[in-house]
Amino acid sequence: SLKKGMSRSRLFCPASHLWVQLQRHSQSGGLAAPRAAWRVQMGLTPRGVDDVGEVTRVDARVQPGKRIDRGAVLLAIEWEGYSISDADELYHTKWESITGTKTLISPFDAEVSGLWQHETISSDSCLIEMIIDRPALQSASGLVDEQAYHEHVRVGPDGIFAPKEPEWS
Question: Does 168 reside within a domain?
C-alpha cells in the first residue's frame, strides 16, 4: 500500500509480471472539489519480457476515455519465437517455432487515459495509462512491493526466452 506523502510508487503484479507506476493526480469532478486519484502507467517487468518473443501485434482491448472493471483484459500481445526442442545424439540443436499471446489484465477499476504502440517491447515500455481513485487502489488485488516481487521471481520459473545456463553432464 502507499505510504503517506509518497507521490510516486511502483508496485508489481507477480501473476502477470507487470510493473505498475503510481503518481498522484487530482481528479476533477465538475463543480465538486477535486478528489484524490492516481495516474497509473503499466508495462512488463524484465521477467515478463522473458515470456514474449518477437512482438507481431499488440491488440488493445480497451479504448482511452472508457471506464473498465478490475479483471478486464487490457491488451493482448501476440508474439513468435524459437525454442530449443531437442538435441540429437551428436548434440545438434533442433529449434521449434513457437507463437503465443500474453494478455494483460487490469488490477483496478479505472478509466483508460492512454495506450502506446511499440515496435518492440522492453521492460521500460509503458503500454497503458489509467486514472484510478482511492477506492480502486484500495480494492486492487494481486499487487506487491518490489522486494516481494523480486523474491517471487527468484523462486519462480524462468521465462520462455530467458537466457539459459548450459547443462553440462
Answer: no
